[in-house]
Amino acid sequence: MSLLLRNALLLDVASGEYAEGDLRCADGRVVETGPGLSAPADTRVIDLAGAHVVPGLIDAHVHVTASTANLGSLASMSPSYVAAHSIRIMGAMLDRGFTTVRDASGADYGLADAQAEGLVRGPRLLFGGKGLSQTGGHADFRGRGEHLRDDHPCCSGVGRVADGVDAVRAAARDELRKGAHHIKVMASGGVASPTDRIDSTQYSMDELRAAVEEAEAANRYVAAHAYTARAVDRALEAGVRSIEHGNLIDDGSVELFRRHDAYLVPTLVTYWALKKEGLSYGLPERSWRKVDEVLEAGLVALERAARGGVRLAYGTDLLGGMHRHQSHEFRLRCEVQRPLDVLRAATTGAAELVGLAGELGTLAVGAHADLLVLDDDPLHDIGVLADPGRIRHVIQAGVLVSP
């Protein structure tokens, strides 16, 4: 199948420059760019009349199974019910221009395979399986009076508890066995978990290193949930590739990011949304009270990281009915960054993080033909991306998928 886009302004995200010309896709890839391209007789041709074309967006921190902000309730839900919600959530993400997402715990090979085979309409799904948590950690959703947990492989929860180096190794190996694209570890407390403090550190250094060793042995990597500078620094020293959130980092953390060539994935919009709507979508009140601890600090952390040259990727971490705010992250980040830099985080930066530089986040020949057609220039008005209604077309793997 071939698609030719004529008379476009094609964005090179790396340089920030547009080039006038045509772009042709075939067999899911970009095969040609340039002026006056010709194509086989059966090619679909769309004259864009000067519209802007940018790479498809990548959200590097989503939870497609999170149909509620009460993450602890997912484990007791029917897997088929959770899957039905996930399909709806993924389809809406695609309509917002996100052609690839990295799931930061919850999604599995079933959803990823279904999307790849065309059974599910949604972004390409890079999944991490269940996040690894110590007892009482960020993915242990038992209340203080609960003593049992369900570790059945069909359990729909977002995490699994593993204590001790051997158990962490076994859990990481098990997620990799099931095809995980990355391993997620909980290296600090969090908002959604019931019994931990946000400022706690979680997992010993030996346990963190064990997860990293297992991921690296499989040519994969570890993403770590962490908020405070102390928790972030421990995870970076252990060798994790990406820090999720990082709202409370300091200048020392920035130096460690650079030294380890690691990535920061801020998720500003989820705190904005949780504060406004979290209670309405199932967030327990005890968790809602934690939001203020990280809400104001997130923008400060992003500005500190950007100024210090930290590698950045776009992430949102939204839950329940708040998924609809996914694109608002663009506006929030533009309070301290240029639109081009935010777009890079959602294209080339995220592609580099997930090990798919040159394959995703670019309009270069040979890349996956994932791209957006926009009537206006997002480098001058980030609202073009923040408001999905202003996206004229979403193209995924060379096929027009929205509208």
Automatic annotation (TrEMBL):
Species classification: Bacteria, Bacillati, Actinomycetota, Actinomycetes, Streptosporangiales
Protein's name in the database: Amidohydrolase family protein
Domain Amidohydrolase-related residues, every copy: 53-401
Natural source organism: Nonomuraea marmarensis
InterPro entries with a match to the protein in the record: Amidohydro-rel (IPR006680), Metal-dep_hydrolase_composite (IPR011059), Metal_Hydrolase (IPR032466), Metallo-dep_Hydrolase (IPR051781), OTAase-like (IPR057744)
Gene3D superfamilies named among the record's database cross-references: Metal-dependent hydrolases (3.20.20.140), Urease, subunit C, domain 1 (2.30.40.10)
Pfam (any one): Amidohydro_1
Superkingdom, taxonomy of origin: Bacteria
